[in-house]
Amino acid sequence: MSLPSVLNTFSVKSRDGENSDLSTPVKELIVQKYLSGEKYSVIARNLGLPRNTVYTVVKRYLERGSVETPSRYGRKRKLDDRDVRQLLRILLKCLKTAHHLSGQISSNKYTCISLALSVNNARYVCPSYKGIIGGGIGGTSAAYFLRELFGSKASIDLFEKKSIGGRLATVSIAGNEYEAGGSIIHPKNLYMVNFTDILGLKKRQDDDVEIISIFDGKKLLFTTSQYTVVTLSKLFWRYGMDIYNVKSWLQDKFMKNFSRIYKIQEEKYAYTTVTDLINAMDPTFVKYLKKSIRQLMKEDGFSDLFIDEMVMGGLRMNYGQTPDIHAFVGAVSMAGIEQGLWNVQGGNKRIPEKLVKKTDVNLIDGEVTLVRYLEDEESPYEVHYIPVKHGQEKPKPKKKQYDIVVIATPLHNDVSNIQFEDFPQDIENFPQKYHTTIATFVEGEPNLATYGLDKFEDLPDGIFTSNPDLFLNSFGKQKPVDDRKHLQSKPAQENFIVGKIFSNKAPDELEVQKYFPIRNDIRMIKWLAYPEYDFYTDELPPFVLHDRLYYINGIELAASAMEMSAIGAKNVALLAYNHWFGHYDKINEHYTEAGDKGSERFRKVQKGSERM
Ligand SMILES: CC(C)=CCC/C(C)=C/CC/C(C)=C/CSC[C@H](N)C(=O)O
Protein backbone atom coordinates (compact mmCIF):
# COMPACT_ATOMS: atom_id res chain seq x y z
CA MET A 1 0.00 0.00 0.00
CA SER A 2 1.35 3.46 -0.82
CA LEU A 3 1.81 5.93 1.99
CA PRO A 4 -1.04 8.31 1.12
CA SER A 5 -3.56 5.50 1.15
CA VAL A 6 -2.14 4.13 4.38
CA LEU A 7 -2.34 7.54 5.99
CA ASN A 8 -5.93 7.87 4.88
CA THR A 9 -6.83 4.82 6.90
CA PHE A 10 -5.33 6.65 9.84
CA SER A 11 -7.34 9.82 9.45
CA VAL A 12 -10.48 10.44 11.43
CA LYS A 13 -13.08 9.69 8.85
CA SER A 14 -16.57 8.57 9.67
CA ARG A 15 -17.61 5.30 8.09
CA ASP A 16 -20.79 6.68 6.63
CA GLY A 17 -19.36 9.94 5.29
CA GLU A 18 -21.79 12.82 4.80
CA ASN A 19 -25.12 11.12 5.46
CA SER A 20 -26.48 12.93 2.47
CA ASP A 21 -29.28 10.34 2.28
CA LEU A 22 -30.87 11.64 5.50
CA SER A 23 -33.36 14.45 5.09
CA THR A 24 -32.66 17.83 6.66
CA PRO A 25 -35.56 17.59 9.19
CA VAL A 26 -34.20 14.23 10.41
CA LYS A 27 -30.73 15.68 10.78
CA GLU A 28 -32.22 18.67 12.62
CA LEU A 29 -34.12 16.33 14.93
CA ILE A 30 -30.90 14.45 15.72
CA VAL A 31 -29.12 17.70 16.57
CA GLN A 32 -32.06 18.95 18.64
CA LYS A 33 -32.03 15.75 20.69
CA TYR A 34 -28.28 15.94 21.09
CA LEU A 35 -28.49 19.56 22.27
CA SER A 36 -31.17 18.66 24.79
CA GLY A 37 -28.70 16.22 26.36
CA GLU A 38 -29.63 12.87 24.84
CA LYS A 39 -26.79 10.42 24.27
CA TYR A 40 -25.82 9.18 20.79
CA SER A 41 -26.87 5.64 21.57
CA VAL A 42 -30.29 6.75 22.92
CA ILE A 43 -30.97 8.96 19.88
CA ALA A 44 -29.91 6.14 17.57
CA ARG A 45 -32.17 3.62 19.31
CA ASN A 46 -35.20 5.94 19.38
CA LEU A 47 -34.88 6.96 15.74
CA GLY A 48 -33.90 3.49 14.53
CA LEU A 49 -30.65 4.76 13.02
CA PRO A 50 -27.10 3.42 13.25
CA ARG A 51 -25.20 5.07 16.09
CA ASN A 52 -22.46 6.07 13.68
CA THR A 53 -24.90 8.03 11.55
CA VAL A 54 -26.09 9.96 14.59
CA TYR A 55 -22.51 10.63 15.62
CA THR A 56 -21.55 11.90 12.15
CA VAL A 57 -24.55 14.22 11.84
CA VAL A 58 -23.76 15.79 15.22
CA LYS A 59 -20.05 16.00 14.43
CA ARG A 60 -20.72 17.77 11.12
CA TYR A 61 -23.09 20.12 12.91
CA LEU A 62 -20.44 20.97 15.53
CA GLU A 63 -17.92 21.62 12.78
CA ARG A 64 -20.06 23.61 10.42
CA GLY A 65 -22.79 25.00 12.57
CA SER A 66 -25.31 23.55 10.18
CA VAL A 67 -26.76 20.19 9.26
CA GLU A 68 -26.60 21.18 5.60
CA THR A 69 -23.75 19.94 3.41
CA PRO A 70 -22.01 23.15 2.31
CA SER A 71 -22.60 23.73 -1.38
CA ARG A 72 -22.02 26.64 -3.68
CA TYR A 73 -25.47 25.99 -5.12
CA GLY A 74 -27.23 25.45 -1.85
CA ARG A 75 -29.83 27.51 -0.07
CA LYS A 76 -28.68 31.02 0.81
CA ARG A 77 -28.28 32.06 4.41
CA LYS A 78 -31.26 33.98 5.68
CA LEU A 79 -29.06 36.33 7.73
CA ASP A 80 -26.54 38.58 6.10
CA ASP A 81 -23.11 39.29 7.61
CA ARG A 82 -24.32 42.41 9.38
CA ASP A 83 -27.15 40.46 11.04
CA VAL A 84 -24.74 37.75 12.09
CA ARG A 85 -22.34 40.27 13.63
CA GLN A 86 -25.18 41.98 15.48
CA LEU A 87 -26.49 38.67 16.76
CA LEU A 88 -23.04 37.74 17.82
CA ARG A 89 -22.59 40.91 19.82
CA ILE A 90 -25.84 40.28 21.67
CA LEU A 91 -25.02 36.64 22.27
CA LEU A 92 -21.52 37.42 23.40
CA LYS A 93 -22.75 39.98 25.87
CA CYS A 94 -25.29 37.56 27.35
CA LEU A 95 -22.77 34.78 27.52
CA LYS A 96 -20.02 36.82 29.08
CA THR A 97 -22.30 38.05 31.84
CA ALA A 98 -24.01 34.76 32.38
CA HIS A 99 -21.08 32.38 32.13
CA HIS A 100 -17.88 34.44 32.24
CA LEU A 101 -16.99 33.03 28.88
CA SER A 102 -13.49 34.08 27.94
CA GLY A 103 -13.37 32.78 24.36
CA GLN A 104 -12.56 35.09 21.50
CA ILE A 105 -15.14 35.40 18.80
CA SER A 106 -14.57 36.14 15.17
CA SER A 107 -17.24 36.90 12.63
CA ASN A 108 -16.97 33.87 10.40
CA LYS A 109 -20.24 32.39 9.32
CA TYR A 110 -20.23 29.47 11.73
CA THR A 111 -19.32 31.44 14.81
CA CYS A 112 -22.90 32.16 15.67
CA ILE A 113 -23.69 28.49 15.91
CA SER A 114 -20.48 27.43 17.59
CA LEU A 115 -21.01 30.19 20.09
CA ALA A 116 -24.53 28.94 20.74
CA LEU A 117 -23.08 25.50 21.17
CA SER A 118 -20.62 26.89 23.64
CA VAL A 119 -23.57 27.50 25.93
CA ASN A 120 -24.27 23.79 25.91
CA ASN A 121 -20.78 22.50 25.45
CA ALA A 122 -18.24 24.84 26.96
CA ARG A 123 -16.83 23.54 30.16
CA TYR A 124 -16.24 26.15 32.78
CA VAL A 125 -14.09 23.98 34.94
CA CYS A 126 -10.79 22.41 34.02
CA PRO A 127 -10.83 18.80 32.93
CA SER A 128 -9.85 16.81 35.99
CA TYR A 129 -7.97 13.90 34.53
CA LYS A 130 -5.47 13.92 31.72
CA GLY A 131 -3.37 10.97 30.72
CA ILE A 132 -0.19 11.17 28.69
CA ILE A 133 1.20 8.00 27.21
CA GLY A 134 4.95 8.21 26.69
CA GLY A 135 7.66 9.91 28.75
CA GLY A 136 10.00 11.11 26.00
CA ILE A 137 10.54 14.73 25.06
CA GLY A 138 7.08 14.87 23.36
CA GLY A 139 5.14 13.50 26.36
CA THR A 140 6.99 15.52 28.98
CA SER A 141 6.74 18.73 26.92
CA ALA A 142 2.99 18.04 26.57
CA ALA A 143 2.76 17.71 30.35
CA TYR A 144 4.47 21.08 30.72
CA PHE A 145 2.25 22.86 28.19
CA LEU A 146 -0.95 21.25 29.51
CA ARG A 147 -0.06 22.34 33.02
CA GLU A 148 0.63 25.85 31.74
CA LEU A 149 -2.74 26.02 29.95
CA PHE A 150 -5.01 24.15 32.39
CA GLY A 151 -3.43 25.28 35.65
CA SER A 152 -2.35 23.63 38.86
CA LYS A 153 -5.70 21.94 39.64
CA ALA A 154 -5.65 19.62 36.64
CA SER A 155 -4.46 16.15 37.48
CA ILE A 156 -1.99 14.77 34.95
CA ASP A 157 -0.82 11.15 34.82
CA LEU A 158 2.13 10.21 32.65
CA PHE A 159 2.64 6.58 31.64
CA GLU A 160 6.14 5.38 30.80
CA LYS A 161 7.09 1.73 30.44
CA LYS A 162 10.88 2.25 30.49
CA SER A 163 12.73 5.37 31.57
CA ILE A 164 11.87 9.05 31.24
CA GLY A 165 13.60 10.54 28.20
CA GLY A 166 12.79 7.83 25.63
CA ARG A 167 15.13 8.44 22.73
CA LEU A 168 17.10 10.94 24.82
CA ALA A 169 19.49 8.75 26.74
CA THR A 170 23.10 8.43 27.79
CA VAL A 171 25.47 5.49 27.65
CA SER A 172 28.17 4.73 30.18
CA ILE A 173 31.58 3.82 28.85
CA ALA A 174 35.12 4.22 30.18
CA GLY A 175 33.78 5.69 33.41
CA ASN A 176 31.87 8.56 31.76
CA GLU A 177 28.36 9.15 30.38
CA TYR A 178 27.93 10.03 26.70
CA GLU A 179 24.97 11.27 24.67
CA ALA A 180 23.51 8.15 22.98
CA GLY A 181 20.28 9.35 21.34
CA GLY A 182 19.00 12.76 20.21
CA SER A 183 22.10 14.76 20.82
CA ILE A 184 22.07 18.24 19.30
CA ILE A 185 20.03 21.39 19.78
CA HIS A 186 19.97 24.36 17.41
CA PRO A 187 20.41 27.85 18.94
CA LYS A 188 17.06 28.87 17.42
CA ASN A 189 15.17 25.94 18.95
CA LEU A 190 13.27 28.23 21.31
CA TYR A 191 11.44 25.57 23.31
CA MET A 192 14.66 23.72 24.11
CA VAL A 193 16.36 27.02 24.95
CA ASN A 194 13.45 28.00 27.24
CA PHE A 195 13.21 24.61 28.94
CA THR A 196 16.93 24.64 29.65
CA ASP A 197 16.53 28.07 31.17
CA ILE A 198 13.36 27.46 33.18
CA LEU A 199 14.63 24.14 34.50
CA GLY A 200 17.90 25.66 35.70
CA LEU A 201 19.98 23.52 33.36
CA LYS A 202 23.19 24.57 31.64
CA LYS A 203 24.23 24.49 28.01
CA ARG A 204 27.23 22.47 27.02
CA GLN A 205 28.83 24.03 23.99
CA ASP A 206 32.25 23.38 22.62
CA ASP A 207 34.47 26.42 22.41
CA ASP A 208 37.21 24.46 20.65
CA VAL A 209 37.18 24.58 16.87
CA GLU A 210 36.02 21.18 15.66
CA ILE A 211 37.83 19.64 12.72
CA ILE A 212 35.41 17.95 10.31
CA SER A 213 36.16 15.75 7.28
CA ILE A 214 34.19 14.14 4.50
CA PHE A 215 35.06 10.50 3.84
CA ASP A 216 34.10 8.54 0.72
CA GLY A 217 35.13 5.12 2.07
CA LYS A 218 38.66 5.31 0.68
CA LYS A 219 40.05 8.68 1.64
CA LEU A 220 39.17 11.95 3.35
CA LEU A 221 37.95 14.18 0.52
CA PHE A 222 38.05 17.34 2.49
CA THR A 223 39.11 18.47 5.97
CA THR A 224 38.42 21.79 7.70
CA SER A 225 41.17 23.69 9.49
CA GLN A 226 41.38 25.26 12.91
CA TYR A 227 41.79 28.59 11.09
CA THR A 228 38.48 29.88 9.74
CA VAL A 229 40.08 31.67 6.81
CA VAL A 230 41.79 28.44 5.69
CA THR A 231 38.54 26.48 6.04
CA LEU A 232 36.60 29.05 4.02
CA SER A 233 39.20 29.08 1.26
CA LYS A 234 39.21 25.28 1.10
CA LEU A 235 35.40 25.17 1.03
CA PHE A 236 35.29 27.83 -1.69
CA TRP A 237 37.87 25.95 -3.73
CA ARG A 238 35.78 22.78 -3.59
CA TYR A 239 32.20 24.07 -3.71
CA GLY A 240 32.48 27.58 -5.16
CA MET A 241 29.69 30.03 -4.31
CA ASP A 242 27.44 27.23 -2.98
CA ILE A 243 29.23 27.44 0.33
CA TYR A 244 28.46 31.16 0.65
CA ASN A 245 24.92 30.90 -0.64
CA VAL A 246 23.79 28.01 1.53
CA LYS A 247 23.51 29.97 4.79
CA SER A 248 21.24 32.70 3.41
CA TRP A 249 19.37 30.12 1.32
CA LEU A 250 18.54 28.10 4.44
CA GLN A 251 17.60 31.23 6.34
CA ASP A 252 15.29 32.58 3.60
CA LYS A 253 13.85 29.30 2.38
CA PHE A 254 13.28 27.72 5.76
CA MET A 255 14.43 29.13 9.08
CA LYS A 256 12.70 32.52 8.80
CA ASN A 257 9.21 31.16 8.33
CA PHE A 258 9.79 28.09 10.46
CA SER A 259 10.26 30.52 13.37
CA ARG A 260 6.69 31.83 12.79
CA ILE A 261 5.47 28.78 14.69
CA TYR A 262 6.56 30.32 17.99
CA LYS A 263 4.39 33.40 17.49
CA ILE A 264 1.50 31.29 16.15
CA GLN A 265 1.60 29.08 19.24
CA GLU A 266 2.06 32.01 21.59
CA GLU A 267 -1.24 33.33 20.17
CA LYS A 268 -2.75 29.90 20.96
CA TYR A 269 -3.49 28.81 17.38
CA ALA A 270 -3.58 25.04 16.88
CA TYR A 271 -3.91 22.66 13.92
CA THR A 272 -5.60 19.30 13.59
CA THR A 273 -3.08 17.71 11.21
CA VAL A 274 0.66 17.88 10.79
CA THR A 275 0.15 19.21 7.27
CA ASP A 276 -2.03 22.06 8.56
CA LEU A 277 0.63 22.99 11.10
CA ILE A 278 3.39 23.00 8.45
CA ASN A 279 1.11 25.05 6.21
CA ALA A 280 0.59 27.59 8.99
CA MET A 281 4.35 28.18 9.14
CA ASP A 282 4.53 28.67 5.38
CA PRO A 283 2.39 27.09 2.60
CA THR A 284 5.56 26.57 0.57
CA PHE A 285 6.71 24.08 3.21
CA VAL A 286 3.84 21.79 2.20
CA LYS A 287 5.40 21.66 -1.26
CA TYR A 288 8.71 20.66 0.34
CA LEU A 289 6.99 17.50 1.57
CA LYS A 290 6.41 16.45 -2.03
CA LYS A 291 9.92 16.81 -3.42
CA SER A 292 13.40 15.75 -2.39
CA ILE A 293 15.94 18.10 -0.84
CA ARG A 294 18.12 17.23 -3.84
CA GLN A 295 15.44 18.49 -6.23
CA LEU A 296 14.79 21.66 -4.24
CA MET A 297 18.46 22.55 -3.99
CA LYS A 298 19.10 21.76 -7.65
CA GLU A 299 16.20 24.01 -8.65
CA ASP A 300 17.87 26.72 -6.59
CA GLY A 301 21.19 26.26 -8.37
CA PHE A 302 23.25 24.15 -5.97
CA SER A 303 25.74 21.75 -7.57
CA ASP A 304 25.61 17.95 -7.47
CA LEU A 305 28.99 17.94 -5.75
CA PHE A 306 27.72 20.12 -2.90
CA ILE A 307 24.56 18.01 -2.53
CA ASP A 308 26.40 14.69 -2.77
CA GLU A 309 28.99 15.64 -0.19
CA MET A 310 27.78 18.30 2.24
CA VAL A 311 24.05 17.62 2.20
CA MET A 312 24.55 13.85 2.01
CA GLY A 313 27.07 13.96 4.88
CA GLY A 314 24.63 15.85 7.14
CA LEU A 315 21.73 13.58 6.24
CA ARG A 316 23.69 10.37 6.83
CA MET A 317 24.72 11.67 10.23
CA ASN A 318 21.34 13.07 11.30
CA TYR A 319 18.92 10.58 9.72
CA GLY A 320 21.04 7.75 8.22
CA GLN A 321 19.43 8.60 4.86
CA THR A 322 20.26 10.38 1.58
CA PRO A 323 19.29 13.64 -0.21
CA ASP A 324 16.39 11.73 -1.75
CA ILE A 325 14.35 12.31 1.40
CA HIS A 326 11.74 15.08 1.38
CA ALA A 327 12.91 18.65 1.44
CA PHE A 328 11.29 19.62 4.76
CA VAL A 329 13.28 17.08 6.77
CA GLY A 330 16.24 17.78 4.48
CA ALA A 331 16.15 21.44 5.53
CA VAL A 332 15.93 20.46 9.23
CA SER A 333 18.99 18.29 8.72
CA MET A 334 20.81 21.23 7.10
CA ALA A 335 19.97 23.28 10.21
CA GLY A 336 21.50 20.42 12.19
CA ILE A 337 24.94 21.03 10.68
CA GLU A 338 24.96 24.78 11.28
CA GLN A 339 27.22 26.46 13.78
CA GLY A 340 26.35 27.03 17.42
CA LEU A 341 24.75 23.62 18.12
CA TRP A 342 24.73 22.65 21.76
CA ASN A 343 23.49 20.09 24.24
CA VAL A 344 22.60 20.00 27.92
CA GLN A 345 25.18 19.70 30.66
CA GLY A 346 24.60 16.30 32.22
CA GLY A 347 22.74 14.97 29.16
CA ASN A 348 19.75 16.10 27.07
CA LYS A 349 17.56 13.60 28.95
CA ARG A 350 17.73 15.99 31.90
CA ILE A 351 15.14 18.16 30.11
CA PRO A 352 12.37 15.50 30.18
CA GLU A 353 13.45 14.32 33.63
CA LYS A 354 13.19 17.80 35.08
CA LEU A 355 9.98 18.59 33.15
CA VAL A 356 8.30 15.71 34.97
CA LYS A 357 9.24 17.20 38.33
CA LYS A 358 8.48 20.78 37.36
CA THR A 359 5.00 19.98 36.06
CA ASP A 360 4.10 17.87 39.06
CA VAL A 361 2.75 14.98 37.03
CA ASN A 362 1.90 11.64 38.52
CA LEU A 363 4.31 9.19 36.94
CA ILE A 364 2.91 5.71 36.34
CA ASP A 365 5.50 3.02 35.58
CA GLY A 366 3.49 0.91 33.24
CA GLU A 367 2.90 -0.22 29.69
CA VAL A 368 -0.34 0.98 28.14
CA THR A 369 -2.03 -1.80 26.21
CA LEU A 370 -5.47 -0.44 25.41
CA VAL A 371 -7.49 2.78 25.22
CA ARG A 372 -11.23 2.18 25.29
CA TYR A 373 -13.88 4.79 24.51
CA LEU A 374 -16.76 4.82 26.98
CA GLU A 375 -19.18 7.07 25.18
CA ASP A 376 -21.61 7.64 28.01
CA GLU A 377 -19.05 8.39 30.68
CA GLU A 378 -18.02 11.80 31.93
CA SER A 379 -14.32 10.86 31.57
CA PRO A 380 -14.70 8.74 28.45
CA TYR A 381 -11.18 7.35 27.86
CA GLU A 382 -10.34 4.21 29.77
CA VAL A 383 -6.61 3.52 29.70
CA HIS A 384 -5.56 -0.07 30.44
CA TYR A 385 -1.99 -0.71 31.52
CA ILE A 386 0.31 -3.30 32.98
CA PRO A 387 2.36 -1.92 35.84
CA VAL A 388 6.10 -2.47 35.51
CA LYS A 389 7.15 -5.56 37.41
CA HIS A 390 9.15 -4.68 40.51
CA GLY A 391 9.18 -7.80 42.69
CA GLN A 392 8.63 -11.46 41.93
CA GLU A 393 4.89 -11.24 41.48
CA LYS A 394 3.36 -10.90 38.05
CA PRO A 395 1.72 -7.44 37.98
CA LYS A 396 -2.07 -7.31 37.56
CA PRO A 397 -3.44 -5.21 34.66
CA LYS A 398 -5.01 -1.94 35.81
CA LYS A 399 -7.18 0.78 34.27
CA LYS A 400 -7.96 4.46 34.79
CA GLN A 401 -10.43 6.90 33.19
CA TYR A 402 -9.50 10.25 31.66
CA ASP A 403 -11.14 13.34 30.14
CA ILE A 404 -8.23 13.92 27.77
CA VAL A 405 -5.60 11.49 26.52
CA VAL A 406 -2.39 12.38 24.70
CA ILE A 407 -0.46 9.67 22.88
CA ALA A 408 3.21 10.60 22.86
CA THR A 409 4.79 7.47 21.46
CA PRO A 410 4.93 6.43 17.80
CA LEU A 411 1.81 4.41 17.01
CA HIS A 412 3.92 1.89 15.25
CA ASN A 413 3.92 -1.85 15.87
CA ASP A 414 7.67 -2.07 16.53
CA VAL A 415 7.55 0.67 19.15
CA SER A 416 4.17 0.43 20.87
CA ASN A 417 1.29 -1.93 20.74
CA ILE A 418 -1.63 0.12 21.96
CA GLN A 419 -5.08 -1.12 20.94
CA PHE A 420 -8.08 1.18 20.54
CA GLU A 421 -11.55 -0.19 21.23
CA ASP A 422 -15.15 1.02 20.93
CA PHE A 423 -14.34 4.20 19.02
CA PRO A 424 -16.86 5.24 16.36
CA GLN A 425 -14.06 5.19 13.78
CA ASP A 426 -11.04 2.94 13.38
CA ILE A 427 -7.83 4.12 14.98
CA GLU A 428 -5.02 2.10 13.57
CA ASN A 429 -1.37 1.88 14.36
CA PHE A 430 1.12 4.11 12.63
CA PRO A 431 1.98 2.39 9.37
CA GLN A 432 5.22 4.18 8.51
CA LYS A 433 8.51 2.29 8.85
CA TYR A 434 10.98 3.51 11.46
CA HIS A 435 14.65 3.69 10.58
CA THR A 436 17.06 1.53 12.58
CA THR A 437 20.14 3.42 13.66
CA ILE A 438 22.94 1.75 15.56
CA ALA A 439 25.16 3.89 17.76
CA THR A 440 28.34 1.99 18.65
CA PHE A 441 30.52 3.54 21.33
CA VAL A 442 34.09 2.30 21.51
CA GLU A 443 36.87 3.17 23.89
CA GLY A 444 40.01 2.33 21.99
CA GLU A 445 42.64 3.35 19.49
CA PRO A 446 41.19 4.39 16.14
CA ASN A 447 42.45 2.83 12.93
CA LEU A 448 44.12 5.74 11.14
CA ALA A 449 44.83 3.66 8.01
CA THR A 450 41.07 3.34 7.36
CA TYR A 451 40.97 7.07 6.66
CA GLY A 452 44.36 7.19 4.90
CA LEU A 453 45.99 8.99 7.85
CA ASP A 454 49.40 8.51 9.49
CA LYS A 455 49.33 10.62 12.60
CA PHE A 456 46.91 10.35 15.52
CA GLU A 457 46.80 14.18 15.73
CA ASP A 458 45.35 14.30 12.21
CA LEU A 459 42.22 12.32 13.13
CA PRO A 460 39.29 14.78 12.73
CA ASP A 461 36.75 15.33 15.52
CA GLY A 462 33.92 14.40 13.19
CA ILE A 463 33.71 12.48 9.94
CA PHE A 464 30.76 12.76 7.54
CA THR A 465 30.42 10.19 4.81
CA SER A 466 29.43 10.86 1.22
CA ASN A 467 29.07 7.29 -0.02
CA PRO A 468 25.54 5.87 0.44
CA ASP A 469 26.90 2.30 0.12
CA LEU A 470 29.29 2.71 3.02
CA PHE A 471 28.62 0.88 6.29
CA LEU A 472 29.72 3.93 8.29
CA ASN A 473 27.19 6.79 8.35
CA SER A 474 29.35 9.04 10.50
CA PHE A 475 32.05 8.96 13.10
CA GLY A 476 32.64 11.36 16.00
CA LYS A 477 35.06 11.73 18.86
CA GLN A 478 32.91 11.97 21.98
CA LYS A 479 33.01 14.25 24.97
CA PRO A 480 31.27 13.25 28.22
CA VAL A 481 27.89 14.85 28.91
CA ASP A 482 29.37 16.36 32.02
CA ASP A 483 32.27 18.43 30.83
CA ARG A 484 33.46 19.40 34.29
CA LYS A 485 37.01 18.14 33.92
CA HIS A 486 37.48 17.01 37.53
CA LEU A 487 34.60 14.54 37.12
CA GLN A 488 35.96 12.89 33.99
CA SER A 489 37.89 9.64 33.85
CA LYS A 490 41.16 9.55 31.96
CA PRO A 491 41.54 7.39 28.81
CA ALA A 492 42.94 3.94 29.57
CA GLN A 493 45.96 4.39 27.25
CA GLU A 494 47.67 6.96 25.13
CA ASN A 495 45.89 7.50 21.79
CA PHE A 496 42.71 6.01 23.20
CA ILE A 497 39.52 7.94 22.58
CA VAL A 498 35.81 7.33 22.99
CA GLY A 499 34.35 7.34 19.49
CA LYS A 500 30.79 6.96 18.22
CA ILE A 501 30.10 5.08 15.01
CA PHE A 502 26.67 5.62 13.48
CA SER A 503 25.48 2.93 11.08
CA ASN A 504 22.24 1.49 9.74
CA LYS A 505 23.25 -2.07 10.69
CA ALA A 506 24.95 -3.57 13.73
CA PRO A 507 28.70 -3.89 13.07
CA ASP A 508 30.27 -7.35 13.13
CA GLU A 509 33.76 -7.95 14.55
CA LEU A 510 35.41 -7.23 11.16
CA GLU A 511 33.63 -3.92 10.85
CA VAL A 512 34.58 -2.86 14.38
CA GLN A 513 38.20 -3.87 13.67
CA LYS A 514 38.19 -1.57 10.67
CA TYR A 515 37.57 1.45 12.87
CA PHE A 516 38.97 0.36 16.26
CA PRO A 517 41.47 -2.54 16.03
CA ILE A 518 42.56 -2.04 19.65
CA ARG A 519 39.86 -1.41 22.21
CA ASN A 520 39.08 -1.51 25.85
CA ASP A 521 35.30 -1.38 25.84
CA ILE A 522 32.39 -1.34 23.40
CA ARG A 523 28.68 -0.52 23.81
CA MET A 524 26.10 -0.84 21.08
CA ILE A 525 22.67 0.83 21.14
CA LYS A 526 19.96 0.07 18.66
CA TRP A 527 17.37 2.76 18.08
CA LEU A 528 14.22 2.86 16.06
CA ALA A 529 15.25 6.43 15.78
CA TYR A 530 13.10 8.32 13.25
CA PRO A 531 10.84 7.53 10.31
CA GLU A 532 12.18 6.18 7.06
CA TYR A 533 11.60 9.25 4.91
CA ASP A 534 10.98 7.27 1.74
CA PHE A 535 7.78 9.06 0.71
CA TYR A 536 6.61 12.29 -0.85
CA THR A 537 3.16 13.24 0.36
CA ASP A 538 1.44 16.25 1.84
CA GLU A 539 -1.04 14.04 3.70
CA LEU A 540 0.64 13.72 7.06
CA PRO A 541 -1.10 12.22 10.12
CA PRO A 542 -3.70 13.93 12.32
CA PHE A 543 -2.99 15.34 15.78
CA VAL A 544 -6.60 14.46 16.71
CA LEU A 545 -7.53 10.77 16.75
CA HIS A 546 -10.90 11.30 18.40
CA ASP A 547 -12.70 14.17 20.24
CA ARG A 548 -10.19 14.50 23.06
CA LEU A 549 -7.68 11.83 22.12
CA TYR A 550 -4.55 13.43 20.68
CA TYR A 551 -1.40 12.14 19.01
CA ILE A 552 1.95 13.96 18.95
CA ASN A 553 4.37 11.72 17.09
CA GLY A 554 2.84 12.12 13.64
CA ILE A 555 4.95 15.29 13.51
CA GLU A 556 8.01 13.06 13.11
CA LEU A 557 6.92 12.41 9.54
CA ALA A 558 7.63 16.07 8.81
CA ALA A 559 10.93 15.86 10.70
CA SER A 560 12.21 14.19 13.81
CA ALA A 561 14.14 16.39 16.26
CA MET A 562 13.69 17.33 19.91
CA GLU A 563 12.29 20.73 18.95
CA MET A 564 9.81 19.19 16.50
CA SER A 565 8.42 16.99 19.30
CA ALA A 566 8.04 20.02 21.57
CA ILE A 567 6.24 21.92 18.78
CA GLY A 568 3.92 18.92 18.28
CA ALA A 569 3.35 18.74 22.05
CA LYS A 570 2.47 22.42 22.27
CA ASN A 571 0.08 22.07 19.34
CA VAL A 572 -1.68 19.14 21.02
CA ALA A 573 -1.90 20.99 24.35
CA LEU A 574 -3.41 23.99 22.53
CA LEU A 575 -5.88 21.76 20.68
CA ALA A 576 -6.96 20.22 23.98
CA TYR A 577 -7.34 23.67 25.50
CA ASN A 578 -9.18 25.20 22.52
CA HIS A 579 -11.51 22.21 22.21
CA TRP A 580 -12.25 22.13 25.91
CA PHE A 581 -13.06 25.81 26.20
CA GLY A 582 -14.74 26.08 22.80
CA HIS A 583 -12.15 28.39 21.20
CA TYR A 584 -12.85 27.01 17.73
CA ASP A 585 -11.72 30.26 16.15
CA LYS A 586 -8.17 29.25 17.12
CA ILE A 587 -8.29 25.88 15.42
CA ASN A 588 -7.07 25.48 11.84
CA GLU A 589 -7.26 29.22 11.41
CA HIS A 590 -4.92 31.55 9.66
CA TYR A 591 -2.67 33.53 11.95
CA THR A 592 -1.60 36.94 10.63
CA GLU A 593 0.82 39.19 12.35
CA ALA A 594 0.50 42.89 11.52
CA GLY A 595 2.73 43.46 8.49
CA ASP A 596 3.34 39.73 8.13
CA LYS A 597 3.90 39.16 4.43
CA GLY A 598 4.67 35.43 4.71
CA SER A 599 1.25 34.56 6.05
CA GLU A 600 -0.54 36.28 3.18
CA ARG A 601 0.33 33.18 1.22
CA PHE A 602 -1.49 30.99 3.73
CA ARG A 603 -3.94 28.63 2.18
CA LYS A 604 -6.21 26.18 3.90
CA VAL A 605 -5.13 22.56 3.83
CA GLN A 606 -8.32 20.92 4.88
CA LYS A 607 -7.83 17.91 2.63
CA GLY A 608 -8.21 14.83 4.82
CA SER A 609 -8.21 16.92 7.97
CA GLU A 610 -11.26 17.57 10.05
CA ARG A 611 -12.21 20.22 12.46
CA MET A 612 -13.14 18.43 15.63
C1 LIG B 1 13.88 27.03 14.93
C2 LIG B 1 14.33 27.21 13.55
C3 LIG B 1 14.34 28.55 13.01
C4 LIG B 1 14.71 26.19 12.77
C5 LIG B 1 15.15 24.92 13.26
C6 LIG B 1 14.51 23.75 12.66
C7 LIG B 1 14.88 22.58 13.49
C8 LIG B 1 13.80 21.82 14.11
C9 LIG B 1 16.17 22.29 13.68
C10 LIG B 1 16.68 21.15 14.48
C11 LIG B 1 18.10 21.01 14.11
C12 LIG B 1 18.64 19.73 14.53
C13 LIG B 1 19.09 19.62 15.90
C14 LIG B 1 18.72 18.75 13.63
C15 LIG B 1 19.34 17.46 13.95
S1 LIG B 1 18.42 16.18 13.35
C16 LIG B 1 17.99 15.28 14.77
C17 LIG B 1 19.09 14.42 15.24
N1 LIG B 1 18.95 13.11 14.78
C18 LIG B 1 19.17 14.52 16.73
O1 LIG B 1 18.18 14.83 17.38
O2 LIG B 1 20.25 14.30 17.27
Automatic annotation (TrEMBL):
It comes from the Eukaryota. Signal peptide: none annotated. Its cofactor is FAD. Keywords: FAD, Flavoprotein, Glycoprotein, Oxidoreductase, Signal. InterPro entries: FAD/NAD-bd_sf (IPR036188), Homeodomain-like_sf (IPR009057), Prenylcys_lyase (IPR010795), Prenylcysteine_Oxase1 (IPR017046), WH-like_DNA-bd_sf (IPR036388). The keyword DNA-binding does not apply. Residues 222-589 form the Prenylcysteine lyase domain. Belongs to the prenylcysteine oxidase family. This is Prenylcysteine lyase domain-containing protein.
